[in-house]
Specification:
The complex is a heterodimer. Chain A is mainly α. Chain A is built from 8 helices and no strands. The longest helix of chain A has 36 residues. The termini of chain B are close together. Classes of the chains: A mainly alpha, B mainly alpha. Chain B: Pfam families: HTH_3 (PF01381).
Chain lengths: 245, 70
Amino acid sequence: MKIKNSYVKIIMWMVLGGIVGAIGGLAGRTIGIGKFKEVFINIFELIANNIIQIQIAVGTLSALVILVNYISAKKLMVKDDNDVDELSDKIELKQTIALTFCSINYILSFILFGIAIDGRNQFIIASVIVFVTVMVFSSFMEISIVNQIKKGDPMKKGDPAELDFQNQWIDSCDEAEKLITYQAAYKTFNIMKYLLLATMIIGMIAKAALNAGNTIIVMGGVLWLVMVLAYSYYGCKLQKNKINL
Amino acid sequence: MPLINHLKEHRARLGYNQAELGKMAGVSRQTISLIERGDYSPSVTLALKLASIFSVLVEDIFNYNEGEQE
């Protein structure tokens, strides 16, 4: 049976959320929040105790993926092939993978470094060195990959070392590339709405089960608020301006 | 896609690859590839530019067919 009334639909979603929350709460009481807490603490203990090894492993693996794809794209760029179009597709895919892993490397390094800043970490200096090395490597590789892309497509502009790189880059993109970027950004906006809601729910559970405090809830809420306000502001602003794809 | 195009045929006729045509039209190779695959409908400006490069009418490259699904 398909419900057509929007008001009924939203109430159904809220009731469903309430039921899930109640079941979760009951499960927590029956199994015991202490057990969840124990599992979480054990996992974090394991990570914290081996953080330097994890930092090195993650940094090395990401670096390998970046280097392999960058070098492979470089080799393909000098290759003489009859099907130039197909070859260009391969090169662009490798460059995209390499650039994506640069970003993944940054994010994972920050997470792991955040965990490494802990009184129990006996290798704190080593953790700092690994973090700095990974950040420098990823930044340098990002510049090299962007330069490689610019070499293949001289219309592309922008220096990753400058603060307005993203603006320079999007300005040098053509209409189809801009449309792809905007569509991807809108999809990401929608995903983020659900992710931030999930973050707040996790924050509430962490507060109840692990005495994690209000930081996660407040951070999730602030980010959600800023995202929605920024979206509305730019939506209104762009409606008044000339649409320039 | 209701917009049918013959870009690939016109490009082949003049012996250009996608990157060369993109350079002449002021767009990237990927954009030419997207148009040829029917995954992107170009703006009026770009369609006119492409027609001018091939010295043909826009209708010779792009046809609107209402029978086709969007």
